[in-house]
Amino acid sequence: MHIGTIVGLTIYFIAMLGIGFYAWRKSTSDIDGYVLGGRSLGPGVTALSAGAADMSGWLMLGLPGAMFVTGLSAAWIGVGLFLGALTNWLIVAPRLRDRTVDVGDALTIPDYFGKRFPNGQSLQVVSSAVIVIFFTLYTASGLVAGGKLFDSAFGESYTLGLFLTGGVVVAYTLFGGFLAVSLTDFVQGCIMFVAMIMVPIVALTGAGGWDHAGQVIRSVDPQHMELWKGLGAVGLISSLAWGLGYFGQPHIIVRFMAIKSRDQVPTARNIGMGWMLVTLIGSLSVGLAGLAYATENNVPIDDPETIFIVLSDVLFNPWISGFLLAAILAAIMSTISSQLLVSSSSIVEDYYRRFFRREASQKELVLAGRISVLVVALVALAIAWNPNANVLSIVSHAWAGFGAAFGPLVILSLTWNRLTRNGAMAGMIVGALVVGFWIAIGWSDWLYEIVPGFALSWLVTWLVSIMEGEEAGDTAQPITAAE
């Protein structure tokens, strides 16, 4: 590993730990501060932490790789994500910020579900179990990605990468809690933003400019620059449907709960969507510019998803490439930390406090939160120990699972007074089961599983709530916040 890369990574790790120390001193005296930052986030931190927690390494590895292989038609995934995120900011963000306070200061998504309905404890328990199980697998996948990054990009061992990535993330998350996670995500989002501007611009320059790059790409495949290449109606729906997942991602929407006030949501939305637009365009451009550069300069690309890594290595001196590779690590770590904290928060608030220690002191609850972070991280580390562990195939569908199980429930709980507890439970279970069934029978290659999962979850939630309302009256707690 070049000395420039070592120095860059060392500075990056020290900065993350320093933020964790600052957050530990500022906001971890009570459980509200530890799991939700005392609802004190400003719009900039809220926006970029939500974006960084969302995108992960997929922004720099998966999407550029899809563009490299498929061409411009892969951009429809980005369009779907952008529209979904925008709708999430418009519909969910302001309402969730107020509603989680109105129902009794809910600190987690399952806690909100439980308090939203009379006798909602079963809903809270089931939704919390789903979060803890799937986010442990999600965390494991992030650790695997960190280990492989050290192996492929830095020439170091997979095990070293596993321990460095996990160790630093666990340290600042365990001690600094939600504020540390959000502030580090903000810094990591800034690093990702700069990287997604630099790499495609330099790559295009190296490929002879945009016009020449387009000619080179068309020489490889005349249809590579066509938006509709090999894309029928079902394919377009599947690509755009990625946006449906946003409404049910706990590690993203929990940021909406933590912003200082509803009045700051529009500012946060504008910052967040601006960040997302630039980084998505940059990510898509890396794939196309990378194809042009690699073809023009005869650079072999064994794995299309490594195109960002290859370009960072061949186009920049080692000091700058170290920064760019740190951007990938930042994307990975930002998501791991968010998932760790959401899992820990669910364990403490939805199980430990509710069933075992209702009268626990704030100090005890914070300690329980830290222990939970460590336990979840150790389980994830065990799963990730084998770099070929069959966890990535599971996690690739988790976005659809969360989106279908929680998405309709989140939206309807914020906008519809007649939603009942049984309707919410039925819809959540049906959404998760449909996604699992769709994957099991192999129909995901035909239509993305979130489409039937989300649609049937919404339908069942509505039908059961309507039937219950007609038979026994409305059993939901009415929405009282100003909408």
TrEMBL record:
<keyword id="KW-0029">Amino-acid transport</keyword>
<feature type="transmembrane region" description="Helical">
    <location>
        <begin position="125"/>
        <end position="146"/>
    </location>
</feature>
<feature type="transmembrane region" description="Helical">
    <location>
        <begin position="365"/>
        <end position="385"/>
    </location>
</feature>
<feature type="transmembrane region" description="Helical">
    <location>
        <begin position="391"/>
        <end position="412"/>
    </location>
</feature>
<comment type="similarity">
    <text>Belongs to the sodium:solute symporter (SSF) (TC 2.A.21) family.</text>
</comment>
<dbReference type="InterPro" id="IPR018212">
    <property type="entry name" value="Na/solute_symporter_CS"/>
</dbReference>
<keyword id="KW-1003">Cell membrane</keyword>
<comment type="function">
    <text>Catalyzes the sodium-dependent uptake of extracellular L-proline.</text>
</comment>
<feature type="transmembrane region" description="Helical">
    <location>
        <begin position="275"/>
        <end position="294"/>
    </location>
</feature>
<keyword id="KW-0472">Membrane</keyword>
<feature type="transmembrane region" description="Helical">
    <location>
        <begin position="230"/>
        <end position="254"/>
    </location>
</feature>
<feature type="transmembrane region" description="Helical">
    <location>
        <begin position="450"/>
        <end position="467"/>
    </location>
</feature>
<keyword id="KW-0997">Cell inner membrane</keyword>
<dbReference type="Pfam" id="PF00474">
    <property type="entry name" value="SSF"/>
</dbReference>
<protein>
    <recommendedName>
        <fullName>Sodium/proline symporter</fullName>
    </recommendedName>
</protein>
<feature type="transmembrane region" description="Helical">
    <location>
        <begin position="74"/>
        <end position="92"/>
    </location>
</feature>
<keyword id="KW-0915">Sodium</keyword>
<keyword id="KW-0769">Symport</keyword>
<keyword id="KW-0406">Ion transport</keyword>
<feature type="transmembrane region" description="Helical">
    <location>
        <begin position="158"/>
        <end position="183"/>
    </location>
</feature>
<feature type="transmembrane region" description="Helical">
    <location>
        <begin position="190"/>
        <end position="210"/>
    </location>
</feature>
<keyword id="KW-0813">Transport</keyword>
<feature type="transmembrane region" description="Helical">
    <location>
        <begin position="319"/>
        <end position="344"/>
    </location>
</feature>
<keyword id="KW-1133">Transmembrane helix</keyword>
<feature type="transmembrane region" description="Helical">
    <location>
        <begin position="6"/>
        <end position="24"/>
    </location>
</feature>
<keyword id="KW-0739">Sodium transport</keyword>
<dbReference type="InterPro" id="IPR001734">
    <property type="entry name" value="Na/solute_symporter"/>
</dbReference>
<keyword id="KW-0812">Transmembrane</keyword>
<dbReference type="InterPro" id="IPR011851">
    <property type="entry name" value="Na/Pro_symporter"/>
</dbReference>
<dbReference type="InterPro" id="IPR050277">
    <property type="entry name" value="Sodium:Solute_Symporter"/>
</dbReference>
<feature type="transmembrane region" description="Helical">
    <location>
        <begin position="424"/>
        <end position="444"/>
    </location>
</feature>
